[in-house]
Prior knowledge:
Low-confidence stretches: 3-63
Number of helices: 4
Distance between the termini: 60 Å
Radius of gyration: 24 Å
Number of strands: 13
Largest sheet: 10 strands, mixed
Oligomer: single chain
Amino acid sequence: RDPAAAATPLVPPIAKNSHHRVERQPRPDLRCDDDAGAEGKKVRNGASWNCLRHILVVDGRAVGHTATVIWCLLAALAWGQNDFEPVRDVHDCKISMRAPTHSEGAAMRAECLWPEVVYERALDKLGRFDAYEEYIWPISESRVERTDPGGRLLLYQRQHIWPLSDREVLLWMDQEPYDGGQRFIWTTADEEPLELGEKAIRTPKNEGYWHVAPAEDGGVRVVHEIAVVGGGTIPAWVVNMVRVRGFARVMGDVRAIIAAD
């Protein structure tokens, strides 16, 4: 740790005429440094979360210092925002990526503002799960297997990316009102049996969502996030192509389709 930082007290001095017994002491049960906190996650700016160790003890009661607590909250917010690192801006979308070393694995996200897109048309297109192969690369086949009593759809998808073997997966598809719009969500139905085609590989993880909402000045706000583990052996150049160029292509294709008359 930085010796200079350690020498700077986080708790302000108390007036000498105060009748309270005051001391600054570590509290292991409140520590939130690199090996503690939410699932042991670190603050990406390199600052240690050793912020709640410095507290006031007044008349035997622990009182957290307001500035320290605020610093902790800001650090936590900064960490959450840095989960995804910017990659590129294209198709009026800000594309970012979560690193494979993250505890939740790699993921891609696009945050878009499409002024020419009609909200109702976007809902119609993105809600037709069995038609995704028409405008979402690299899906080559998509069909509904069944609907469960709760309204979820069990969807079969096959993806084709040359020169890889086809990937096949079963997904639970659902939708819900969210943040002023509608969110279309999917998770991997790995508990469901799937008879694979010749030389196909079952995708162990495919989860994500499309969130669409009306924009204040017209058009729509779109957020698309997806996390995929393809299974099998995939060359690094293919992985990079899909994560960056392929993902950007998906956003451009979807925009063009739902904006068309």
